[in-house]
Amino acid sequence: MLNVKVIPCLTDNYSYLLESDSVLAVVDPSEEAPILAALEGRKLDFILATHHHHDHIGALPALKARFPQAQVLAAQADAHRIAPVDRWLVEGDQIKIGSAVAEVWFIPGHTTGHIAYVFKQGAAVFCGDTLFTLGCGRLFEGTPAQMWQSLARLRALPADTRVFCGHEYTLESGAYAASIEPTNLYLQKYLQKAKVLRAQGLPTIPL
Ligand code: ZN
Ligand code: FE
Known about the structure:
29% strand; five-stranded mixed sheet; single chain; alpha/beta; binds fe (iii) ion
């Protein structure tokens, strides 16, 4: 069983608190205070990063200092730009959060070191800034071909997979999507739902 708590950080970032069998992990620690609030006094066991951008690892050093026993996991390809890290990850690696198992996918495009954490049981993917709801991340470092391949892999995940992305960009991406497909009723229905959630200050994630 994998429990996920969405933690809004900064302007439009999301960090995630994962819990399985009382083991706690944070994905993309953006900001310390909201993560500590979500922990409610409990200790972190794992800190996971999807890529090196500051809005995803800004609180990593502070959290590691506060929870020295927590294992920090990040992509081997980002070894020169994420610290401190206890375990470097490459494509195909498995990680365990309690009884929840995730496979590490190397999905370059937004950056050249970007990874995703794919939980097959529990059907959840933490994909940072590669795939957003109705959009994708900017190509800061990778090539369009790399991004396309990464998105194609994510697209092939089972349809019930919950997508936990790095930012709340749903309405902006949705407005663009609607301009491309103005007659897409499914999209219009979804965007209406998303607008209601955002008007209440609630995340549209996961889709
Ligand atoms: Zn980023
Ligand atoms: Fe970001």
